[in-house]
Amino acid sequence: MPSVAFHTLGCKVNQYDSQAMLELFEQAGYHAVPFSEPADVYVVNTCTVTGTGDKKSLNAVRRCQRLNPAAQVVIAGCLAQRDGEKLLSTGARLVIGNARRHEVVTLLEEAVEKGQQVAAVENILRLPYEALSISRHEGHTRAVLKIQEGCDRYCTYCIIPYVRGGIRSRRVEDIAREARRLSDAGFSELVLTGIHLTSYGRDLEDASLIDAIRACDAPNVRRIRLGSLEPVIVTEEFVNALKNEPKVCPQFHLALQSGCDAVLERMRRRYTTAEFRRAAALLRDAFPRCALTTDVITGFPGETEQEFADTVAFCREIGFARMHVFPYSARQGTKAAEMPRQVPRALREERARQLIAAGRDMSLAYRRGFVGQTVEVLCEEQEDSLSHGYTREYVACAFSGGVPGQICRVAVTGVTEDGLTGYMA
After folding, report:
1. Is 289 left (phi over 0), alpha (psi -120 to 50) or beta?
2. Has residue 126 been placed in a domain?
3. Same domain for 91 and 151?
4. Phi and psi (nearest 5°) for 312?
5. Quick one: 203 and 318 in the same domain?
6. Domain interval for residue 419
7. Sign of the dihedral defined by the CA atoms of residues 257, 311, 225, 23, in that order
8. Do 94 and 45 meet the contact criterion of CB atoms below 8 Å apart?
9. Into how many domains does the chain fold?
10. Pairing mode, if any, of strands 142-149 and 168-169?
11. Residue 272: per-residue pLDDT
12. Same domain, yes or no, for 208 and 304?
């Protein structure tokens, strides 16, 4: 039986796509092995959001060629969609973009049989939703459920619309079927994800994100977690609907990118800091002590010291539970890459370090609010006599007692550098 190993970079959508392709290989008679071991086939599911993503993706390709020089290498994902045939120079047998992943096994085996290298990269701007599906999520106690693909926002810094295509939403009945499969497989938490989750349903006649959430209410599912949202979706109507769905986790990732209106305008983000502030307030009114998390880019073209200071001040005002901070990375083909007043790399990175430090302070302050409280923790693993898992707010917690897959009530006794500690109540 031939073996296959996967290495996945980037977002939760990529995690889902890798799991779907892995199950296709298994259905064709392959067995999965860890990426660190020799395999007959390696699949590297790439990311191209930043230059670092490109570098890590290519390093992974070189690594699998060292592990087994005779292996067949498949390069998939966003870098594959972007660079197509150029990547055949790596020696990969198959380069497959974001449109024909359901054919990955057939395309690979045909290429091997014919002794050819193949670049299966299609124009994805007007393609329908690709019918990938999963029945489990390898190595996880929670499962990612992809409900949406593509983006049509064209923010000036972002390459994603060019490599993922336009908005495509998965039909509600398909979401419900997959949620039931994952529920039957024992997953008690589902994470709804997409490239631009806020746009879910815009291309369907009668469906909204709330409908997709309700479709995930399968018997064994006790938690439904939302992926990244934009503040424009957070209306009173939307929040009131969320309140009526008790399985929705009180953790909301609102993409900020900058806390300065002038920078947001240059980024072509379609909201202001005032609208973001209102969205945060609506969520906190409805879900007291909810975790608000975010992404921020430092050193966007033209960002002045004052604009950066405004971003730091705004982030502190909101008080995020966790922040992902990235120095700006120019992507060829985007409008921002051609903008004047590009910020030097060293300054971009220094600003990122400053904001990361501020984010650590905010995260610690947020987590301290749990001490003395009792929380629900989904136990994911056990190590050194302690169980490890996450609260409904997606805060890591180490505690005594519990078994993987169990949702435990934990009395919180303290905080660590990046989580909580406690014992089963």
Report:
1. left
2. no
3. no
4. -60, -45
5. yes
6. 374-424
7. positive
8. no
9. 3
10. antiparallel
11. 98
12. yes
**79-112 confidence digits (pLDDT tens):** 999 999 999 999 999 999 999 999 999 999 999 9
CA distance 26 to 1: 10
Whether residues 331 and 383 fall in one domain = no
| 397-401 LR contacts (CB < 8 Å, sep 24+) | 397/421, 397/422, 398/422, 399/423, 399/424, 400/424
The Cβ-side half-sphere exposure at 227, using a 13 Å CA radius, reads: 25
Per-residue pLDDT tens for 298-349? 999 999 999 999 999 999 999 999 999 999 999 999 999 999 999 999 999 9
Which tokens hold the place of 419?
Answer: 């989580």
Mean pLDDT of 200-224: 95
Strands 396-400 and 407-415: unpaired
* 128, part of any domain: no
Q: How far apart are CA 148 and CA 142, in angstroms?
A: 19
> Among the three residues 332, 349, 368, which one is the final residue of a domain in this structure?
368
Model confidence pLDDT, tens digit, residues 8-61: 999 999 999 999 999 999 999 999 999 999 999 999 999 999 999 999 999 999
Can you give the CATH number for the domain in which 394 is found?
Answer: 2.40.50.140
- Same domain, yes or no, for 102 and 65? yes
What pTM does this model have? 0.94
One domain, residues 147 and 235: yes
